Automatic annotation (TrEMBL):
It is found in: Cytoplasm. Its EC number is 6.3.2.4. InterPro entries: ATP-grasp (IPR011761), ATP_grasp_subdomain_1 (IPR013815), D-Ala_lig_Van_CS (IPR000291), D_ala_D_ala (IPR005905), Dala_Dala_lig_C (IPR011095), Dala_Dala_lig_N (IPR011127), PreATP-grasp_dom_sf (IPR016185). The lineage of its organism: Bacteria, Bacillati, Actinomycetota, Actinomycetes, Micrococcales. The gene is ddl. This is D-alanine--D-alanine ligase. Cell wall formation. Keywords: ATP-binding, Cell shape, Cell wall biogenesis/degradation, Cytoplasm, Ligase, Magnesium, Manganese, Metal-binding, Nucleotide-binding, Peptidoglycan synthesis.
Length: 375
């Protein structure tokens, strides 16, 4: 065997069908800039907003994002298909100009789904990869689906004994059949409340509601993203996050030093889309978070518990509120957290002694190591 054939081939998936399409492209550009090409062959696949897969590369993504930092991945070039089952891991390529011709593409050893949100981080792509007998980085089908759904995520956290804040779930059926009762349940939480699509991300569709008059508009906004909503009582506390990385084989997962998100201006009353990705001044991240040692330690343990509560694999970022009276309330886990060179997940690991390149390598190694099928 030649050396090059001993190099595992990693397929990076980016873009995708969710509202976090462009964030995913930025993540992919970051990973492509840091992955060890001596160790891995890399195949990059861009997924259009309407769900078609195309072969792409680092140069193309760089040019695309230089023109527009929040670009859409275009339907251009060779379209990619996965064979399902039978142990065949070679991509099939079809040129959009001649659909009758199928070309054999590279054989894939492991997929890195750098996708956020629905149709990426929610178990759907994970299911497809399971069907195709392909190993992949990160959480499996069930844990991805639970981690995407702010309703079932809380159910899993509660079952594991983690502290979650007061919340109500409003399904579309409940809203259509009896909006009055839904409003009453929300009212009982007390204002302010956070109205959220159950399955979105990057703060899309989330509104902080300070009074009953603002409620219906917030519900309408959240419904643009998801028919199912989660409404939460506003929690007063510091936002502390912790990065979790799986252990090898049956070893325990590891947690990074925690980091903190600090809102810097009053225009953004919470960590919304703008303060996450657009405004450079509205939020600051502090790594490590300035916490008493015992609190930091407790938070790291809770982060690992949260990862296990959703049956996590590979990685997750666990986000908490640290209240003034000392409670660590879990907000959410992200099973494919932002992963750009400036993202918290990466920064927290760097702060704990793991570089971006090492982190990428570690995630791919963990994925290559794990068996196919039920684990
Ligand atoms: N219950 C809450 N109390 C106070 N702030 C909240 C609450 N829920 C969300 N937030 C604020 O909104 C931001 C986004 O909410 P989050 O649930 O993390 O959604 P996403 O999955 O889009 O990141 C949080 O980072 C925090 O600033
Ligand atoms: Mg969040």
């Amino acid at each position: 065997m030649t050396l090059s054939s001993q190099k595992p081939t990693v397929a990076l998936l980016c873009g995708g069908r969710s509202s976090e399409h462009s964030i995913s492209l930025i993540t992919a550009r970051g990973v492509l800039g840091a992955i060890d090409y001596e160790k891995y062959n890399v195949v990059t696949i861009g997924i259009t907003r309407d769900g078609r897969w195309f072969l792409t590369d680092e140069d193309f993504l760089n040019r695309l994002l230089e023109e527009n930092a929040l670009a859409d991945f275009p339907a251009e070039g060779k379209q990619v298909f996965l064979p399902l089952g039978g142990g065949d891991n070679r991509l099939r390529l079809i040129d959009s100009k001649d659909e009758t011709h199928v070309e054999m593409g590279p054989a894939i050893d492991v997929v890195f789904p750098l996708l956020h949100g629905p149709f990426g981080e929610d178990g759907t792509v994970q299911g497809l990869l399971e069907m195709a007998d392909l190993r992949y980085v990160g959480c499996g089908v069930a844990s991805s689906a639970i981690g995407m759904d702010k309703h079932f995520m809380k159910v899993a956290f509660e079952a594991a004994g983690l502290e979650v804040g007061p919340y109500e779930v409003i399904t579309h059926r409940q809203w259509v059949q009896n909006p009055g009762q839904a409003r009453e349940r929300i009212q009982a939480l007390g204002y302010p409340v956070f109205v959220k699509p159950a399955r979105a991300g990057s703060s899309f569709g989330i509104t902080k509601v300070n009074s009953a008059e603002q409620l219906d508009a917030a519900i309408e906004e959240a419904h643009k993203y998801d028919p199912k909503l989660v409404i939460e009582a506003g929690i007063l506390g510091r936002e502390i996050e912790c990065a979790v990385l799986d252990g090898h084989r049956s070893a325990n997962p590891l947690a990074s030093h925690p980091g903190e998100i600090v809102m810097m201006d009053r225009e953004h009353s919470f960590y919304d889309f703008e303060s996450k990705y657009v405004s450079k001044t509205s939020a600051e991240t502090r790594c490590p978070a300035d916490l008493p040692t015992d609190v930091a330690q407790q938070l790291r343990e809770l982060a690992v518990e949260a990862f296990l509560a959703v049956d996590g694999e590979g990685l997750c970022r666990a986000d908490f509120f640290y209240t003034e009276d000392g409670h660590l309330v879990i907000n959410e886990v992200n099973t494919m957290p932002g992963f750009t060179p400036i993202s918290m997940y990466k920064t927290m690991w760097e702060n704990t002694g793991v570089s971006y390149a090492q982190l990428i390598d570690e995630l791919i190694t963990l994925a290559l190591e794990r068996p196919l099928g039920l684990r």
